[in-house]
Amino acid sequence: MKRHLISAGDLSRDDALLILDTAEELARVSERSIKKLPTLRGRTVVNLFFEDSTRTRISFEAAAKRLSADVINFSAKGSSVSKGESLKDTALTLEAMGADAVVIRHAASGAPHRLATWVRGSVVNAGDGTHEHPTQALLDAFSMRRRLGRLEGLKVAIVGDVLHSRVARSNVLLLGTLGAEVTLVAPPTLLPVAVETWPCQVSYDLDAVLPKSDVVMMLRVQLERMNAAYFPSAREYSRRYGLDRARFGRLHDDAIVMHPGPMNRGMEISAEVADSPRSTITEQVANGVTVRMAVLYLLLGGSEPAIGTSAADPAVQTVPGGEL
């Protein structure tokens, strides 16, 4: 793997499978009463969040702590950033403190890429503007593979506010690398310029795509990023692109429903669908910790999958650098 994880497009097929396979091994840790490994003891991970976050920030913090790393949580609110400190000066401060990895979320697209030029440690993109969110795509792929047993050849529909969605961009790149067939479904106003250059298909008709889909990933309508009238009304959007019980019934019996969260229940997805047994939404949150453990482990600790068996005890699984 490369030193940083900035874009899902940076991952080769082998890199992506290495992360997913490592996460599969590390998932066994979450089933134990003591969920901690000594793998990253003595390493420092900084969570540098310039945007509000619940799932991603807590997920990265839990992942680092389960690997025994020291964690520093940095919030722009109440820090020198609120006094006008630049990203570069903040980065140099972290560098002076000896951060081994910096997990960054920033409102500006490209901020993680710039940060990577200023620090010697690894940089992990936890979401930059409307650009990318590679670890979300990895946990989504991990969730699909766990539920459906494969990624190659899966037909995945990504539905909704693609224009503002860093999750959609990362998923299109990663799933394409892993052999899935992705179709973006959205009104024309919520598709980005040059979407035809992306490795996917595009449709404006959700009802036509649903029966052919193995996975339907609903995207949150990001009202906070919208500065124009992208659709007539919330009711009209829900009528055309919301996943309700009737549309859910058009899916084949093994198809699953996903959502990166947080959800606008009743707008892009109904509560009944979100809470159904074929929804992976809560699993995605749990899988996020495991996948981010794998990312941090591979960037900071090891280069091989977390597989193997202790010669002394065949029941004990091991990872390079620590017992599982």
From TrEMBL:
<dbReference type="InterPro" id="IPR006132">
    <property type="entry name" value="Asp/Orn_carbamoyltranf_P-bd"/>
</dbReference>
<comment type="subunit">
    <text>Heterododecamer (2C3:3R2) of six catalytic PyrB chains organized as two trimers (C3), and six regulatory PyrI chains organized as three dimers (R2).</text>
</comment>
<dbReference type="Pfam" id="PF00185">
    <property type="entry name" value="OTCace"/>
</dbReference>
<comment type="function">
    <text>Catalyzes the condensation of carbamoyl phosphate and aspartate to form carbamoyl aspartate and inorganic phosphate, the committed step in the de novo pyrimidine nucleotide biosynthesis pathway.</text>
</comment>
<comment type="pathway">
    <text>Pyrimidine metabolism; UMP biosynthesis via de novo pathway; (S)-dihydroorotate from bicarbonate: step 2/3.</text>
</comment>
<feature type="binding site">
    <location>
        <position position="261"/>
    </location>
    <ligand>
        <name>carbamoyl phosphate</name>
    </ligand>
</feature>
<feature type="binding site">
    <location>
        <position position="105"/>
    </location>
    <ligand>
        <name>carbamoyl phosphate</name>
    </ligand>
</feature>
<feature type="binding site">
    <location>
        <position position="133"/>
    </location>
    <ligand>
        <name>carbamoyl phosphate</name>
    </ligand>
</feature>
<feature type="domain" description="Aspartate/ornithine carbamoyltransferase carbamoyl-P binding">
    <location>
        <begin position="3"/>
        <end position="145"/>
    </location>
</feature>
<feature type="binding site">
    <location>
        <position position="56"/>
    </location>
    <ligand>
        <name>carbamoyl phosphate</name>
    </ligand>
</feature>
<keyword id="KW-0665">Pyrimidine biosynthesis</keyword>
<feature type="binding site">
    <location>
        <position position="220"/>
    </location>
    <ligand>
        <name>L-aspartate</name>
    </ligand>
</feature>
<dbReference type="InterPro" id="IPR036901">
    <property type="entry name" value="Asp/Orn_carbamoylTrfase_sf"/>
</dbReference>
<dbReference type="InterPro" id="IPR002082">
    <property type="entry name" value="Asp_carbamoyltransf"/>
</dbReference>
<feature type="binding site">
    <location>
        <position position="166"/>
    </location>
    <ligand>
        <name>L-aspartate</name>
    </ligand>
</feature>
<feature type="binding site">
    <location>
        <position position="136"/>
    </location>
    <ligand>
        <name>carbamoyl phosphate</name>
    </ligand>
</feature>
<comment type="similarity">
    <text>Belongs to the aspartate/ornithine carbamoyltransferase superfamily. ATCase family.</text>
</comment>
<feature type="binding site">
    <location>
        <position position="83"/>
    </location>
    <ligand>
        <name>L-aspartate</name>
    </ligand>
</feature>
<feature type="binding site">
    <location>
        <position position="55"/>
    </location>
    <ligand>
        <name>carbamoyl phosphate</name>
    </ligand>
</feature>
<feature type="binding site">
    <location>
        <position position="262"/>
    </location>
    <ligand>
        <name>carbamoyl phosphate</name>
    </ligand>
</feature>
<feature type="domain" description="Aspartate/ornithine carbamoyltransferase Asp/Orn-binding">
    <location>
        <begin position="152"/>
        <end position="299"/>
    </location>
</feature>
<dbReference type="Pfam" id="PF02729">
    <property type="entry name" value="OTCace_N"/>
</dbReference>
<dbReference type="InterPro" id="IPR006130">
    <property type="entry name" value="Asp/Orn_carbamoylTrfase"/>
</dbReference>
<keyword id="KW-0808">Transferase</keyword>
<dbReference type="InterPro" id="IPR006131">
    <property type="entry name" value="Asp_carbamoyltransf_Asp/Orn-bd"/>
</dbReference>
<protein>
    <recommendedName>
        <fullName>Aspartate carbamoyltransferase</fullName>
        <ecNumber>2.1.3.2</ecNumber>
    </recommendedName>
</protein>
